Amino acid sequence: MRYSELVEVYEGLSSTSKRLEKAGILADFLKRVPSDEVGEVVLLLQGRLFPAWDEREVGVASQLMVKAISLASGSDAASVEREWKMTGDLGNVAENLVKGRRQRTLASSELSVGKVFSNLSKLAVIGGEGSVDRKLQLISELLTSAKGVEARYIARTVLGDLRVGVGEGLLRDAVVWAYFMRVRDDFSKEEREEYNAFVDAVQQAYDLTNDFAVVAKAAKENGLEGLRSVRIVLGRPIKVMLALKVDDLKDALEAVGSPLQAEFKYDGFRIEIVKDDNGRIMLFTRRLDNVTAQFPDVVESVREHVRGKTFILDAEAVGYDKHSLRYLPFQSISQRIKRKYDIEKTASEFPVEINVFDVLAYNGRSMVGEPFRQRRALVERIVDDVKRGIRPAEAVVTGSIKEIESFFAKSKAAGNEGLMLKGLDSPYKPGARVGYMLKYKKTLENLDLVVVGAEWGEGKRSSWITSYTLACRSDGKLLEVGKVSTGLKEKPEEGFSFDDMTKLLKPLIKGEDGKSVKVKPKVVIEVAYEEIQKSPTYESGYALRFPRVIRNRTDEKGVNDINTLADVERLYRQQKKAKGGSK
Ligand code: AMP
User: Fold this and answer.
1) Is 265 a catalytic residue?
2) What residues pair up with 355 in beta bridges, in sequence order?
3) Are strands 437-440 and 244-245 parallel, antiparallel or unpaired?
4) 95 Cα to the center of ligand 1, angstroms
5) CA–centroid distance, residue 352 to ligand 1 (Å)
6) What is the pLDDT of residues 42-59, one digit of tens each?
7) Tens digits of per-residue pLDDT, 338-369?
8) Region 540-558: what's the mean pLDDT?
């Protein structure tokens, strides 16, 4: 396939911001792409040479691009730099200078997608002596053959800045449109159902493989059946399952079934561990970025303490203090994820414990359709239990609310965030938030506070007062502890609304300054929050993190009944104690 055909698509996509038009352009194009080129085309459409989970990177700096443009266009480096300063975009510079070059070399030929892909992907693997020159050659060879506008997209792809905006959602729709049918307003019920089933199948195949080349091929060649028979690709990560929040244990037991498995919810970061059939161990974040190089210590413990020829494990890496062995909050180890140098030193300074909580594939077999109880049993069989090393996540199986509560207290005392609650019969749904696992964090007890100030809203909300300054009391004074603007409904029929609040507050306004108003302290509301922090911003010395309005208590409570500064201080200490404990 000619590269110019792909460039035409880039141009079409850039010329519209309408999503449906973009999907249409992509779908028409995908229909024309031969099966054996779909892989390369799909990557290039996203401005990539490798999928996100692949460690390889093109790694070409702007300065090398300047040299390549100069070589291909015959303009000296200084003029390339000058033009770059003027336009601010090396893609445009490449286009202009290549267009304006004095004569096209005789050797220049029509560029193919295959040629562009092959030269650019070689850039990632060239290393050692003379590598800069070879990279320069590879790029300028392409630019020499490129027509102006092709040069623009080659340069942008090399620099990892394509700016065409093809995301996963758009590609998914384009695959459906190309190989099944386009969405229409006048779908019959059956057509709508068929269409949705195809969309789900494309999404599921993508969640399992993270590779639109595999997905597009399956859809093109065998339709729905092809998509449904797509399996995990050995040695590649798959998207992780996501959790829903639950506040009430009775609801949790109902949602996932009783008994359930409760596990510590560690305050670390998700890590997917893949071992391929060459014995290679790879580590990925929740977004499937490859972080293997940053965690040699983890690779080592996986090698030593997990049995199996191939596998994909789902786990949480949690930091701990190397002297006291106490768990540390996520922030203390977050720097390890992006670390490029001093890796060994950082690893010994900020060690992590790996808590394995699921297995998605084992010895060549997909496990995602198996019930959780079997997956967990497998985890226990293949992962050793090495404290502050690698181990199966701490868990209990129970149907008793009392037991879950006491396990929750144990988890908090160990420095964790709370619990995960999982259904024993549930499958694993990659990429989905379907309620097979719930997070239970239990926020601190709610506070009743009075509104002392507020702000008018903007845009659609400009006829309402939408943000409220809250105060607690102390020795007859009111002290501010934060602002809240979430938890209220937009539609009055759904509950306590912005409109209700505006009606309550308007008669109490005693001064206005721009959008801000001061109000007489009369309206008492109950608020929930994630955390209490020390803060110099408010007179009380504290601020509520992520507060949300639970209900209006003005009819039941007056200013003298609201929570006091002493209450806020007590809750602050309580929360600190819960966080600071260790196992
Ligand atoms: P959240 O990020 O608040 O939505 O909570 C879900 C996250 O908790 C997951 O993505 C994991 O990174 C993390 N987590 C910690 N412990 C566990 C566990 N035992 N099972 C599943 N996820 C866990």
Assistant:
1) yes
2) 316, 391
3) parallel
4) 47
5) 16
6) 999 999 999 878 888 888
7) 888 899 999 999 999 999 999 999 998 999 99
8) 90
Residue 425, pLDDT score: 97
Catalytic residue among 217, 239, 265, 275: 265
Task: Give start-end residues of each CATH 3.30.470.30 domain in the chain.
Answer: 242-440
The H or E element spanning position 512 is strand 509-513
Q: Identity (one letter) of the amino acid at 50?
A: F
Locate CATH 1.10.3260.10 in the chain.
48-159
521: left (phi over 0), alpha (psi -120 to 50) or beta: beta
Tokens standing for residue 569:
């201080």
Phi, psi of 522 (to 5 degrees): -130, -35
Residue 35 confidence class, pLDDT cut points 50, 70, 90 = confident
Mean of pLDDT values over 536-548: 93
SS3 at position 466: strand
The fold adopted by the segment(s) 447-578 is OB fold (Dihydrolipoamide Acetyltransferase, E2P) (2.40.50)
Task: Find, among 313, 280, 13, 52, the residue nearest to 163 by Cα.
Answer: 13
Q: What is the pLDDT of residues 328-338, one digit of tens each?
A: 988 788 889 88
Place 581 in a pLDDT band, splitting at 50, 70 and 90.
very low
CA dist 223 and 114 (Å) reads 26
Q: Is 263 in the pocket of ligand 1 (CB under 6 A)?
A: yes
Q: Is the CB of 265 under 6 A from ligand 1?
A: yes
Neighbouring C-beta atoms of residue 117, cutoff 10 Å: 20
List the structure tokens of 327: 């768990």
For 55, the token pair is 């460690």
Nearest protein CA to atom 2 of ligand 1, as residue = 243
Atom index in ligand 1 nearest the CA of residue 263 equals: 19
Say which CATH class 242-440 falls into.
Answer: alpha beta
Type and span of the H or E element at 516: strand 516-519
Rounded to whole angstroms, the Cα distance separating 574 from 582 reads 15
pLDDT tens string 385-395 = 999 999 999 99
315, 355 Cβ separation under 8 angstroms: yes
Among protein residues, the one whose CA lies closest to atom 12 of ligand 1: 270
Task: Please state, in angstroms and rounded to a whole number, the distance separating the CA atoms of residues 397 and 435.
Answer: 18
CA of 272 to the centre of ligand 1 (A): 12
Task: Categorize the per-residue pLDDT at 371 as very low, low, confident or very high, splitting at 50, 70 and 90.
Answer: very high
Q: Where, residue-wise, is CATH 2.40.50.140 in the chain?
A: 447-578
- pLDDT, residue 294, reads 95
Q: 365 and 375 in contact (C-beta within 8 Å)?
A: no
For residue 107, what pLDDT is reported? 52
CATH 1.10.10.10 describes domain 48-159: no
pLDDT tens per residue across span 469-496: 999 999 889 999 999 999 999 888 888 9
Cα distance from N-terminal residue to C-terminal residue, the chain = 61
